[in-house]
Every structure is written in C-alpha cells, then in structure tokens.
Amino acid sequence: MARKISYQQAINEALDQEMERDETVVIMGEDVAGGLGSPGERDAWGGVLGVTKGLQPKYGDDRVLDTPITESGFIGAAVGAATAGLRPVAELMFIDFMGVCFDQIFNQAAKFRYMFGGKAETPVVIRTMYGAGLRAAAQHSQCLYPVFTHIPGLKVVTPSNPYDAKGLLIQSIRDNDPVIFCEHKFLYTLEGDVPEEPYAIPFGEANITREGDDVTIVTLGRMVHIANEAADNLAKDGVNCEVVDLRTTSPMDTETIIESVENTGRLVVLDEANPRCSIATDVSALVAQEAFGSLKAPIKMVTAPHTPVPFSDALEDMYIPDANQVSDAVRLVMEA
Amino acid sequence: MARKISYQQAINEALDQEMERDETVVIMGEDVAGGLGSPGERDAWGGVLGVTKGLQPKYGDDRVLDTPITESGFIGAAVGAATAGLRPVAELMFIDFMGVCFDQIFNQAAKFRYMFGGKAETPVVIRTMYGAGLRAAAQHSQCLYPVFTHIPGLKVVTPSNPYDAKGLLIQSIRDNDPVIFCEHKFLYTLEGDVPEEPYAIPFGEANITREGDDVTIVTLGRMVHIANEAADNLAKDGVNCEVVDLRTTSPMDTETIIESVENTGRLVVLDEANPRCSIATDVSALVAQEAFGSLKAPIKMVTAPHTPVPFSDALEDMYIPDANQVSDAVRLVMEA
Amino acid sequence: MQLAREELLRAYRTMKTIREFEERLHVDFATGEIPGFVHLYAGEEASGVGVMMNLDDRDYIASTHRGHGHCIAKGCDVDGMMAEIYGRTDGLCAGKGGSMHIADLDKGMMGANGIVGGGPPLICGAALANKNLGTGGVAVCFVGDGAFNQGTNAEGMNLAAVWKLPAIFVLENNGYAETTSSSWAIGGGNPVDRAKGFGLPGVSVDGFDFFAVHEAAKEAVERARAGDGPSFIETRLSRYYGHFEGDSQTYRGKDEVKEIRESVDALSQFREKVIGAALLESDDLDSIDGEVAELIDNSVSKAKASPLPTSEDLLTDVYVSY
Amino acid sequence: MQLAREELLRAYRTMKTIREFEERLHVDFATGEIPGFVHLYAGEEASGVGVMMNLDDRDYIASTHRGHGHCIAKGCDVDGMMAEIYGRTDGLCAGKGGSMHIADLDKGMMGANGIVGGGPPLICGAALANKNLGTGGVAVCFVGDGAFNQGTNAEGMNLAAVWKLPAIFVLENNGYAETTSSSWAIGGGNPVDRAKGFGLPGVSVDGFDFFAVHEAAKEAVERARAGDGPSFIETRLSRYYGHFEGDSQTYRGKDEVKEIRESVDALSQFREKVIGAALLESDDLDSIDGEVAELIDNSVSKAKASPLPTSEDLLTDVYVSY
Ligand SMILES: Cc1ncc(C[n+]2csc(CCOP(=O)(O)OP(=O)(O)O)c2C)c(N)n1
Ligand SMILES: Cc1ncc(C[n+]2csc(CCOP(=O)(O)OP(=O)(O)O)c2C)c(N)n1
Ligand SMILES: [Mg+2]
Ligand SMILES: [Mg+2]
Predict the structure, then answer these.
(1) Which CATH number fits domain B2-195: 3.40.630.30, 3.20.20.70, 3.40.50.970, 3.20.20.140?
(2) Distance between the two ends of chain C, CA-based, in angstroms?
C-alpha cells in the first residue's frame, strides 16, 4: 500500500525496516540520535536534519551509535565492522567532509574485495548529504559523486525521489559491497508515493521519467526535476525529450542511455556537479564512443561552472543549473 | 646549455634553482632529507626515491623540513604557510595517500581564493608520485589526477619527460595558485635534454610530440611514451598519428585538442587512470561537444580497467594500457 | 589585572560588540532574512577576546564555524562581516564566503572554517611562516570540544611540538558538539592531559573570566614569541544559543543557559570586576554599550543596502575557469 | 612464565617461522625474483607472537605494511603467504594483493595495510562487531612509531575509549619511521602518556622479551574480553633490515643491529630462558629449527611452481566492472 511520504521519511523507513529485518544492521554517525552524555533529551536530533530520528529509542544504543567528530575513525569503524559481520550504515553528515576520511573509503572499503583476492565482503553503506541550494557555501554544498564514481570498488547511488530513496537504500543495505548513498539536501521535503512494505530497486537500472523521441536528457538526483521541468516547457513547443534518471552512477545503466540516444540521436547531459571529469563527461564520452553513429548533433553538457559553490543566494541561484539552461541546450542540439 | 639528465634530476634541479632564487621557497615531507633524530647520516634518503637529496645540506633545516607521518598535518601546514607568505613545496610521497589529507587540499587550499572573495593567495605545490608499473599494488599505484582535476581551484600538472618536469615545476612554484604536481614513478630514470638555466613552461599549453593527419591521440604522463610507440608502429603501416601531450590537465589546453581533431577527424584518448569520470572521458566529452562536426568516427578511449591496481606482475602488465591496445584503437577509428 | 585603562575599555568594547552582533543575528535570523547556517558565539566572548588582546596583525588565527567572535576580536571590520553574512558585494569575501568563511588575511584572520578540525594544520603553516620570515608573530588555532577529537587536531598539535612552532592551541570547550556532550566524546576526559601527551604544556581556565583567559594566553604567547614552542589552553564556557540558529536545544538542561547568564556571564562579570576594583566607571561602559548598539544597527542597514553580486562575480577568483 | 610446554613450543615455532620467512625473503629479494616493496619484520618477532598467543580465530587484528610476522602469528598459511608475495594464483589473495595486502579473514587477519595508520579505525569496527555479535572476541591494532602520530590513530584510540570497545592498540616502536627517529617524531616523547590522554590505560614493555609482551597482552586481552574497554601497549624493539629491501640504512648507528642481534635477540633470549628454566630442551628447539627451515624452503618452491594469474583474473573481484 503506497501513501505519500517525504524523501526524508522514506529514508527513515528504509533504515527502520532493514534494522527490524536484520539484527546486524547498525547505524552510526554524529548525532544520529543525539544528546549523548547531555543533560536533556536523548534522540534529540536524529541527525542534523532529523532523518534518523526515532531509531535510537527503538533499537537502542548498541545499534544506533552516536560518534565523536572523527570521521576517519567512525567511517573506518563502519568499514571494519562490515568486514567482520555487521551491516553498518554510517552517516557522513555532508559529502563535503569526505576529505577527512577518504582513505577509509577508497583505499580500504573499495579495495578489500579485489586486493584480498575476492575473499572479503564489505557491506557498508555511507549515507551522505550533497548538493547546493541551501546557501551552505563552498564546504557544505558540493556534489562530489564523480569522485566516488571514479573509484573502482564503490557503488554510488543518487536517488531523485522518495520511492527511489527507499528502494535504493534497502538495496544498498542488502548489497554486499560498499555503497555511497548520496541524498540531495534539497529533496528531503519532497513528497511522493511510497509503498509501506519493503522493496529493493536493483542497481544499474536507470529510470525513464519521461519518454520522448527528439532529445535524450541524461541526468540524476535533484537535476531530474529540473530536466522534467525543462521537458514540460519544451513539450509546449513540440520538442519531445526523453529524460533518463540514472539512479546509480556506479554501476551505471549504459544500455538505457545508449538505446535512448540511438532512438533520439541527440544528447544533453545535465549534472549538478562541477564539469571536469564528471558524470556529464562520463555519459558524453560513453555515447561518443558507443552510439556515435546515431548522433545527429553535438552532445551538450549542462553543469555547474568550474568554481566552488558561492554563498550569496544571488550567486548560488546562478550556480545551479536551471530549466532555462537545459531548454537552451536542447534547442541548440535540435538546431544543429 | 642543455645536457642529458633524468626526470628525477630535473625535478631536483628545479627545486634547487627556485630555492636559490627565492628564500620563501621551502620544502617539506616525510624523509625529504631523512635521518632526523637518528644516529647515522643526515639527508640519508632525500625522499623515498632520492629526488630531494642534497637540498637539506645546502639550505638547512629551516627550509627543508622533515615531517612526522601526518599528511593532514603537514600538507595543511604547507597550505597555511602559503597563505602566510611562504612558497612551500610539500611532498605527498604517493598520490594514493591523498585520502588522509584530502580535506586540506580540496576544501582548504583549492577554495581559499574564491571563498575569501579573491583576497587570498595560496602558492603551494604538492609534489606527488603516481602511476602503476612498479608492482606496488593497489594502494601505491593509482593515478587519481582525475579527482584533483574535478576540483575547481586546483591546477594539475603531469609532466611526461625531464624537460617538462623542470619547466613545469618551476612554473608551479612561481604560480600563485595551489598546484598538484604529479610525477610518474616509472619516469624518474628517463633521461632527456634539459637546459641548465631555469625556465618556466606555462600551464595550459599542450605539447604535440608527433604530428599527423589521420588520428589524434590525446594523452599525458607516462602514456605519452606508449602513444609515441604506437604511433611509430602505425606509421610503418602508413597511419599518421598526431600525439598531444596535455602536460597539464587543469588548466587543460582545449584549443590544441580541438584544432587537432578538426584536422584529423578522429580521436583516441589514452589515459592510465581508471575509466570513469577520468581525463579520457573529459577529453572525449569536450570533443563530442566542441568538435563534433569534424569527427569522422566514434571516439575511442584506451584506459586502465575499472579495477584496483593488481599486484602480480602478470596482472599489472595487463592492467597498464600498452601500445598494442592503442594501435588497435587507432585502427578501429580508421576503419569506422 | 595589570591592564591599562585603554586596554580594559578595548576589551569590553570588543566583547560587547561580539555580544551585540550575535544577539542581533539571532533576532534577524528568525525573520528569514539571513541565508544559510549561522552559528553564534554569544556567551563565549571572554575566550576570544582574552586571547586576542595578546595579539597583533602579524599574528595569525585559524577559526571555526563559530567564527564571528574571533573575527571581531581579531579586528575584522564589522560592516564587512555583516555584509558578508547577508551575501552582499561589500562583504569581506564579496559575498562568496558567508558566515562560515569570513577571512581577512591583512588582519591575520585566516578564516572561519566549515570543516571541523580544518584549522589546526593550517595554523602550523602560519606559525612556520612567521618563524621563517622572522616576523616575531605567532599563530593561534581555536577548536571546539568536538573538533578537539579530530585527527587533524592531533596531527597539528604533534607537528607544532616537533617543529617547535610559535603556535597556541585554544580549545573552547562549551560542553557540546552539536547535541553531544564533550564529557562523553573526549576519551579520558582531560584535554590538558591529552595535549601534554603531544608535548604541549597546557592549562584549563574559566572561559567566562576574561582575566583568567587573558593571563593564560599572555603566558602562552610570550612562550611562543620567545621561541619556546607551542602550548595549549582550554577555556571552559557555554554557548547561549543553539548549535546553529533553528536548533531547539532539547538536549540541554532546563534553564542551563539562563543560570549561566545570571551567574557567570562574561560581560556582567567583567563589568563588576572593573567597577569593583575602581578601574573603570559605569558610565565608561554604558557609553560603549550605546556606541556598539549603533555600530551594529548601522552595519545591518549598510549590509541590506549593499548590492548583490552579479553573474560576473560567479566566475572570478577561481584559479582556472572553464 | 605460566605457559604450558605446548604453548612454549608453539611460541618458539612461530617466532622461528617468522624469522626464517623474513631471512629467506631478504636473500631472495636480492636476486630480483620478488616483485614490489617488501618490508621485513625480522627482529620484532616477540612482539607479534607475544600478543597473538593470547588470541584465537574470532579475534581480529589489523596489521601494517610490515605485516608478514603478524600474518604468521595469526595463523595465516605460510605457503599461501609466500605464493602471494610471488604474485601467484595460490597466494592468499590470488596474487592480487602482494606483500602489503595479505589478509585472511577466516583467521581474523584483516589485512596488512599499505596506508600508514589505515588500521586503527578498521579495528574499532571489528571490535564493535565482536561486541554486538557477542562472540567474546577482541580486536587488536598494530601500528609503528610513525603510524602512531597519524590522525587516524588518535581517532581510533578515542573512538575505542568512548565506545568502550574490546580493542587493544599495540605500538611497535622500532625507533624509526623509514629514516626518521621516533624520538624526534613523537611529540612529548611518551606514547603511554599520550594513550592515557585518550583514556587508554597503557604500558611500555621490552619488545625483544616474548614473556614481557605476552604478559602485557594477556592483561589487555583479559580486560577487553571482560568488557572493561580498550588498552594500549608499547613494545620497544628493532628491525633487523632496512625500512624496505634495498634500503642502505645510512641513517642508522654503526653496528646498531649487530649489537642487538648479539645481545637481546628475541629468539636467542627465548631459547636461553626456557632452557635455563628447564622448561624445554635444546633438542626441542633444534628440531623445530629444522622443521621450519624445511617449511620455508618448500613454500618457496611451491610459490615458484604456482601459476601466474590470467587476464580473466584481472577483472574479477571488483564490485562493478565496465
Ligand atoms: C569534518 C566535519 N565534520 C562534521 C561537521 C558538522 N559540524 C559542524 S559544527 C559541529 C560541532 C562542532 O562542535 P565543537 O567543535 O564543540 O564546536 P562548537 O559548535 O561547540 O563551537 C559539527 C559536528 C563539520 N562541519 N565538519
Ligand atoms: C599514509 C601513508 N603515509 C606514508 C606512507 C609511506 N610509508 C610507508 S611505511 C612508512 C614508515 C612507517 O613507520 P612506522 O609506522 O614506524 O613503521 P615501521 O616501518 O617502522 O614498521 C612510511 C612513511 C604510507 N604508506 N602511508
Ligand atoms: Mg562545543
Ligand atoms: Mg617504526
């Protein structure tokens, strides 16, 4: 039975249901419950935005672990615990903080299985908040999923709506590999239909949010909504866009991308990340290599500029790709 | 006056000449001199491969600073010192160790100028050793320059020969922005003509190591030599490759790439890094967007596979892209 | 209390400016006019000012996400700060940084920092620069009790010790990292002992007491200037507001802040002491109060009147643009 | 010395196996047959074995780049290790890991590590898993004196303390991190004090003395198993060879190693003690020597005979392939 809940509630529900199902699932992070050692209320926050609230009272301190502010320490602990029989879901409050713990992610978690000749499993999930839009400035607004996507051994997930958030998080927890689960901070309050019962969405299966014959727009995360908005506008002018929501960037559903471009002959890639060595270039390169023969026009990338995220709302609004930029890009490739 | 010296000597000479010229240039890193506090010889190593040897006896302990094994600590100190009036050249022994100090690089050094409204300068150079080929396994053989290239605010340099190593390092030190200077460990013993006097090679100017009309091969670092080898072989069959050595990936010389492809109509990108969100995808996407009209064939990327670097010499030799793979790719795009 | 009258007035003015700046932000944030995250320093004034009264422009500091107080105490322009917080071109960072990234290198203020534990390594570098350039300057790193546990803080303390840097590490222990108690999060429970384990002599002082902080910092700064290496100070204090604006603070004790405000507030305490010792008169301080209120009022008006940055500003000040 | 005869024999056999393994690698590396970096543990045997004699398969350890000794002491198959170092399919990691990445999770060996300071966070997780799964197991992290300064080590110690984990942090202080003296690099100079600063009770013991290490580890393991939290042990010792094979070691004192070998060598010392106390006879130990020599000899032959991995192996065991 589906009902409307928010992206944030969907994440909470996935955690709750998986913790219920499997005793080895534990969560950890800074203030994931909150109030530890403090005189007031326990479970005071449930994470900085309340996403994990309610889990500590239900599952107790052994399974909902508040941590000191030592990301290498506790992300590494999650990785170690995963190789030793638990299924930890660690929260890295902002993806921007990856810099203080990246080694544990890319040199340890990502490489164990290969480096140890296939004998290790590291079923750890790192939930993290990314993206611009909250005037959180340069160190709290980055995307950075291209960095994780570059690293072999990591799976990278970027849900764009509540339904996907729940199903992909459940899959992430059940998956035996390390997963970077990227939650766009702008989407937490977005509501959508979500079934009550647990369900898993397989990795590497993109979602076509809108079908169309003229141009393929490949995108992900919050940008799916920008793409849909642009597609709505363009439809009024008779331009039919197919919007592909990648859902996961590693593994990436290359087949759906290629099939769509083979049909439309035109590609716009929309990525909120910085432009260099990004998902935008990745998808573009894939198509230029594998579907070149179908292309009727140059590929066009719409991304954030090659700058840190600015603070001022005036600047940040210009920084984030918007529907007009997408429409312009689509028109450009239609005219070419 | 040019004479033949090695890549390693060229780097040492650039450091020496810049330290001589400018008192604010200091170097720091683990064992950059060596023997500190030990009973035996001082300047015992000069870095793990001897690249900085001889500088401590000449410039003293105030300018050649050995460090404890605390990369966040001393890379961060180099960044801080750069904003406070020095020009530090810090050595991150292997690029693979970026994970324990990445925050200081991408959230601090890279963002100061922008985040502080243009009022900060951070003239720090981080020299680091990268690449496969020495059977150093998964945590000592990565490329990772795509990760740095993704980050706005960093300049990324990847010299392929002794002449470039000297000239680009001098430019890096004089440059007022943070530079990640990537030295391929396989190239240290490579010899080449290097002028005795100091000279600076500007950033963002690619080097065409070989001219040709049939196919453009864009590459960098050690792979330049693989590309040249392939080009030599192909020339025997009458296929003329133009080999573009990027020299710096950020800034990247997009003009030279586009001009070359406009002339040849065919592109192979050769990158030792892992394939996703890499320089290979970056260059491919650039061309698919900016020079699509000139392309006569699909773009072809030749890269390492999407796996950690394996240890066994048998596997590592297969992991590293070789001249045959490049020739095959060139033949493929010639036939298309 | 060997401070001259002028210094006492300056100390009070600075503490009052911080308090007023923060109280005003607290009010204005509620109206929705101020974008982003704002972490207020109100309550902790004696710490920043007590330390900074020992410094001058050649001395560097690295601050935290809770940086307004450090900025003001280090001499940053209040108008520039307010405009920055409003995201305007007249801001100290031209609107590109915001509350968490205010910096002014000319004043030796190396930046607030959005990364908990970002500062300690940086300050080692600033100390090294001062040492190598022979400026006689020192460098001071502020961290909170949460940041104190970060590996970067450990590395910074160790590096300062082995390099014998003119550096001072100040732990502002306000009892909480977000909602989490410092008594739980700091293993061993004694920060001074931990610092000693890295080779840093240290003391723990009452952070509401300007004079205690000033005295401890004076000693540490003198040691650093004399080339005798780094040291550590813990100031024990409290924040008067939530972790950031919008925090409902249910994790705190009932009336926790109210009691502190009433009993040990840094400004009231200072007032009582200097008047009690007949060093200053009530009027001196009252007139400062008036001036500061006007200063802050003006800064808000100026900030609101300052132009927003434009599309051109978006692409400048980055090392490489594409 | 309350160890049973069988345990004493096992301790000696393990130490001897490590010594022989490493001496053999030292010789064979010089011929150029062994690829990559090799860091030898010879000289440090009493530390790894003294600790590991207190552990069983449910207990986890995290090791370092200098990991062969820990692997052998934790029960890794010697043939599998040798084949791994030769990069062959019969290697413990099928040739994909090499010397710096030998692991065997079934034996609780979580891996050597190419990253200095990589282990401490990981071991906190293993300790947590043991705690939550109620196995009664503990987790032990080995770091060198260089790694001891890494921020990750500080974070690991702090986390273990505040989570009260069944974890033990062993610092193997061999005096050097590459060429750099630990007496210079460890600010404050006293690792036990530093560990106390994180809330870990600790001791420093003679790392050449198997019995001293064994005793200290016994206490720490018992404390951990009893749920009384983490602790710290420093073992002071020396490496007999260079940082890695090929290191000319000019930074070391003249005859430094020679003197140690002659005076306090872990194996000779053990031999003398157990024979002196009439716990074992010379013959017992001599016959172990012979068996171990054969074991190592065989392992090399087997390694060389083992097939090299193929192109198919290149692409397996990675989570996602493209
Ligand atoms: C690396 C990193 N981790 C986590 C955060 C999120 N965060 C911001 S402030 C804060 C609490 C800091 O506590 P403390 O150091 O005591 O400073 P206080 O807020 O009390 O002044 C946290 C967890 C961050 N900004 N950076
Ligand atoms: C993060 C990181 N920094 C640096 C290195 C290079 N490195 C490998 S071993 C080593 C010295 C380690 O010294 P110590 O911890 O004392 O161990 P020992 O070699 O003496 O056993 C260094 C600097 C590394 N592998 N990882
Ligand atoms: Mg605090
Ligand atoms: Mg050592």
Answers:
(1) 3.40.50.970
(2) 57
